[in-house]
Amino acid sequence: MAMTEAFRDPDRPLDDRVADLLGRLSLAEKVALLHQHQPPVPRLGVGPFRTGTEALHGLAWVGPATVFPQALGLASTWDPDLVRSVGAAVGDEVRGFHHKDPARVGLNVWAPVVNPLRDPRWGRNEEGYAEDPWLTGVMGTAYASGLRGDHPTYLRTAPTLKHFLGYNNETDRHLTSSNLPPRVLHEYELPAFRAPIEAGAAVAAMASYNLVNGRPAHLSPLINDELRRWDSGEVLVVSDAAAASNIAGDQGYHADHAAGYAAAVRAGIDSFTEDDGDSAPTVARLTEALDRGLLDESDVDRAVRRVLTTRFRLGEFDPAERNPYAAVTADVVNCAAHQELAREAAQQSIVMLKNTDGLLPLDGEGTVAVIGPLADTLHEDWYSGTLPYTVTAYGGLAARVRATFHEGVDRIALRGPDGYAWADDGAVVRADGAAPGRQAYFDLFDWGEGVVALRAVANAMHVGADDDGVLVDDRPQPGGWVVRETFRFVEHGSGQVVLHHLATGRYVAAGADGVLRASAEEVAGGTPFTVELVADGAREAAAAAAGADVAVVVVGNHPMINGRETEDRASLALPPAQEALIRAVHAANPRTVLVVTSGYPYGIGWADEHVPAVLWSAHGGQEYGNALADVLLGTADPGGRLTQTWYRDAAELPDLLDYDVIACDATYQYYRGTPLYPFGHGLSYTTFEYDDLRLSTVEVDADGTVEVSVSVTNTGGRAGEEVVQLYTRQRRSTVKQPLRRLRAYRKITLDPGERATVTFTLRAADLWFWDVTRGARVVETARHTVQIGRSSSDIALTATLSVRGEEVGPRRPLDRPLWAIDHDDYAGTVLVDGEPGRADAVGAAEQAGWIGFRRVDFGAGAAAVAARVTSRTREAAGARVTLRLDDPLSGPVAGIIVVPTANARQDWAEVRAPVTGAVGVRDLYLSFEAPGATVSCLTFSSGGMEASSD
């Protein structure tokens, strides 16, 4: 096209170029650009574009590329510069693949994941960074900065934050609602997203599957009211896969898809990830929405402007020679520099949880028995790249010391009524084997919660079911969106079992042809087998350990089993067979090192009590074995620190769906128990001493700063790494405050005897909390304990800082409405979506409940109240909401609101009622009589029934 077209001129302002191209598009062309797969516009010389290249810890799903440690592992380095370098390497590999195959690999990348890791049972725990929102923001900003690049004009890639908002559970994720009270929203959930966007590192975000306070996240007003306010430019927002169809589908929030899609566009969704590469259904629904007047062309223009802005910033419409990233070729993929970076990242991510009796580092002498189901294999997770090569734990150690290997898993035979189950190389599995033998032997992998996998000894391939349910031994590993290689043994009586195939939900039965199929709907239709133990894995591993100088046992999770996308974990316990293996090996050789490789914490209480040395890392990518050997042999200090609390048992956790971390004492900030390993924990091979904690001032204004300095000395005999951590705790407050909160940290390396002074700048303004009485941040006048230590529980030194801030006074409901969502206490209630343009509301849950407001100043007295209410169930119609003073159950009644019948979700009514006894400063409670009774806000007046909520 001619260079006279303004959008082709790279010297024009970006906004002018976008406006010019937007003005040249027809309405139909613009609508087509709102799908993930954007078609070309040949008449303008505009090519195709697609959103959504997965790049969480390496380029995924497009063939071999450098695989770095999982995101949780990257954060465990506590090294944002290293994480940024990894992001840059991944961004270059995206560019390299795009250079080779632009149609297959787009430049809008869906990474990083910045959902704070509130609960370790979340199925996607390994995708996030930390349970602390500030640390999550630091790491998310670092990784996104690498992906984005540092050119002032062009983006290396366009990073997309996932998943906005309140997304930490998988099971029925599109039907569950995350309860986010205002303080949890502003203090815990939003900061992790805000940091990368405010820093200009991330330029896009993805909405999440779940609902937030009863409203689909794809329709959240927070997309425009919060997310887009953090950046002065355009922030692209994409839908998650098939999520927009849920709005009028399973969520039933709108009557039809045209209405649901229109609502999504108006809420701020710019790109629909629907129907894979087929954009026709999305275009049809949006076109219908326009025809019905549910959308205006201006709504479409607004979304397309964000889409085009991203494309311009990637350099699509500029000469290649002006864009340095356009010159990156596929030669960069898995290059030597990236391999070395992968090793460094894996090395720095390893956390030493325990080391007694000086067992580590190993001296490299003697024989090391490397044992366990994860000792000589590397697993890919759903968002992992394809491993170009693998260095396992055994491989890394065997290259440097005398090492032996034993997998430590049981070998079994399955004897059925017509013979043994057996398999040839990649053939169907039959149940008519005449005698046990190699073709009838299977290695049994216990992955916990009763889930097992079977690997045929005949060809070392896993058994799975094909599309017709036929069992075949042709799978290298369990994996795929649908994992077809997992089973449960269901007892059948008389010591026999039936195989339950988890993917199909059916039971395995032998047909008349002897072939095993997952075909029976009931357990009674399955073929019963007697499990014959051919080799006791734990016993044989123990024998191998007994003959070695040191045993290294490598256990953990399979990333595709018992916790992954669509599936949460039920437990933090190790699989029983792995637990038994650790105990057997330790009994045989007390010089045992336990290495846990997993995407989430485990409750390894027995091992912590008995095993002398324990290490943990996330799944570490292609260089994991070399990195582990570096740490075990002491050529590298274990540089990792935990970014999550390790609990002893899942019983210490609140309900997985309870997102109110403040009320339920969740995460290290509020947890009152003694963890197995605390947030921030990790040991070095040397020791450090802290002294001389100083504050530049002991009193500061709310807009002031204080320099916090501490001296750290390496008191050991070798160089080592320490992560010096700064926490604060507000001593008194009008609200419940965290017991501790990470404010800053510094990772340092010191030689033996070396002493260094570490200085932090603490801003008093960062000591804010969200004041629900005013809907704003507030820094209170209060004293704060400044804590310096090695972890959130290992505090070495403390000092006191006084902050001159504000005094939070009582609520004044005669001056402003009292919004139900802004309550201080509650029981038996649920947060729900409020009226359009208003705050969210509160309703009774499954039975009667209440909410409370502390210190409500009614002045000389309130005489009337106007309440915005609705009924969300038939039972709620005519129910009462009782206003009580001082106590939610027995306090004096100040007023009664009767909830009228509602005919639709947003059928709100204003109900007026007299108020008595509300004088002076009192605690106010709203007691809900029936499930579904819902209150949005209350407006009090001193003049009687003329009160109004407007």
TrEMBL record:
GO terms for biological process: arabinan catabolic process; xylan catabolic process. Keywords: Hydrolase, Signal. PROSITE patterns: CBM6 (PS51175). GO terms for molecular function: alpha-L-arabinofuranosidase activity; beta-glucosidase activity; carbohydrate binding; xylan 1,4-beta-xylosidase activity. It holds the Pfam family Glyco_hydro_3. InterPro entries: Actin-crosslinking (IPR008999), BXL (IPR044993), CBM6 (IPR005084), Cellulose-bd_IV (IPR006584), Fn3-like (IPR026891), Galactose-bd-like_sf (IPR008979), GH (IPR017853), Glyco_hydro_3_C (IPR002772). The keyword Transferase does not apply. Residues 816-941 form the CBM6 domain. Catalyzes the hydrolysis of a non-reducing terminal alpha-L-arabinopyranosidic linkage in ginsenoside Rb2 (alpha-L-arabinopyranosyl-(1->6)-alpha-D-glucopyranosyl) to release alpha-D-glucopyranosyl (Rd). It is not able to hydrolyze alpha-L-arabinofuranosyl-(1->6)-alpha-D-glucopyranosyl (Rc). Belongs to the glycosyl hydrolase 3 family. This is Exo-alpha-(1->6)-L-arabinopyranosidase. It comes from Phytohabitans flavus.
